[in-house]
């Protein structure tokens, strides 16, 4: 196994950029870059630098998003009351805190190493999500000074009742069906497009007085992966997309929201479901 020292140094610097701009902001850029790559491929053009160096290095979530997540954990510990450790929507450059920025670099470097090792070892699940989870868990163990889990989650679900799950099922089914049918029409070379579109759509969470939009890449990613593994079986792809969304919802409420640091719920959902898919198929 080989870890490129130059890439480790580059990942360290990219991790600092993650701290500078914020986790969600960089993930949105990943989405738009992915869309551009797919459009160029559809036009028969070479993606070259944009695909390998920009999308798969500079904007790789295993590097830049991990930098944002780990630095946010330290920032919350060093600046209590100014930001929440689980909220990775904040640029940290306003803190003027060198250790926070360097921790972003560490998150990027460690994220790259974990991602690279998982890829080389042939982990039967998504290597990027695995890296994000490992860095998130380490960050909570070492830097989390508050809640490790949300004790109010069960009460929340009791208050919501069955209607909550029906509501979530309807919405997730619609997203999964639309994604699966469009991808089936587009063909196997575009099975990853749904993930990029979902990431890019998060930009609308910052428009119009804080209007939020749902997180959907845990659905579209899994639908695309399952389509590839099943030869385009829409029904099976939708079913696994729904499973991924349920895992996302439960993990987010119990182990991320209102907790001391960020452990990415979509990454957890994608990792678990791709592991199941790897075993089943």
Report what the structure shows.
- The protein contains twelve helices and no strands.
- It is mainly alpha-helical and 281 residues long.
- It has one domain (5-280).
- It is globular and about 50 Å long.
- 47% of the residues are buried.
- The model has no long low-confidence stretch (mean pLDDT 94).
Outline the fold blueprint.
Blueprint: H1 5-21, H2 23-42, H3 48-58, H4 64-78, H5 98-121, H6 127-143, H7 153-160, H8 162-186, H9 193-201, H10 217-230, H11 234-255, H12 265-280
Helix pairs in contact: 1-4, 1-5, 2-3, 2-4, 2-9, 4-5, 4-6, 5-6, 6-12, 8-10, 8-11, 9-10, 10-11, 10-12, 11-12
Question: Which terms would index this structure?
Answer:
281 residues; mainly alpha; 12 helices; 70% helix
The helix/strand class is mainly alpha
**What composes the largest sheet?**
none
DSSP summary: helix tally: 12
* Unreliable stretches: none
Strand content of the residues, in percent? under 5%
* Shape estimate: globular
């Amino acid at each position: 196994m080989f870890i490129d020292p130059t890439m480790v140094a580059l990942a360290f610097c990219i991790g600092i950029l993650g701290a500078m701009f914020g986790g969600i902001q960089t993930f949105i850029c990943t989405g738009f870059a992915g869309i551009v790559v797919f459009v160029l491929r559809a036009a028969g053009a070479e993606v070259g630098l944009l695909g390998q160096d920009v999308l798969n290095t500079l904007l790789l979530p295993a590097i830049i998003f991990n930098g944002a997540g780990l630095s946010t954990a330290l920032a919350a510990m060093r600046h209590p009351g100014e930001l929440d450790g689980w909220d990775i929507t904040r640029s940290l450059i306003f803190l003027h805190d060198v250790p926070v920025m360097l921790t972003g670099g560490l998150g990027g470097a460690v994220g790259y190493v974990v991602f690279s090792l998982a890829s080389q070892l042939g982990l039967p699940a998504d290597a990027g999500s695995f890296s994000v989870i490992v860095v998130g868990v380490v960050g909570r163990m070492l830097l989390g000074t508050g809640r490790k889990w949300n004790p109010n989650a069960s009460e929340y679900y009791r208050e919501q009742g069955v209607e909550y799950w029906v509501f979530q099922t309807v919405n997730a089914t619609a997203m999964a069906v639309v994604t699966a049918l469009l991808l089936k029409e587009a063909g196997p070379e575009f099975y990853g497009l749904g993930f990029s579109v979902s990431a890019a759509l998060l930009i609308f969470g910052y428009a119009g007085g804080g209007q939020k939009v749902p997180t959907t890449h845990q659905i579209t990613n899994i639908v695309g992966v399952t389509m590839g593994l099943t030869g385009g079986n829409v029904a099976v792809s939708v079913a696994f997309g729904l499973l991924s969304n349920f895992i996302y919802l439960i993990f987010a409420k119990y182990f991320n929201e209102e907790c001391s640091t960020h452990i990415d719920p979509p990454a957890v959902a994608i990792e678990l479901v791709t592991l199941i898919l790897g075993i089943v198929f």
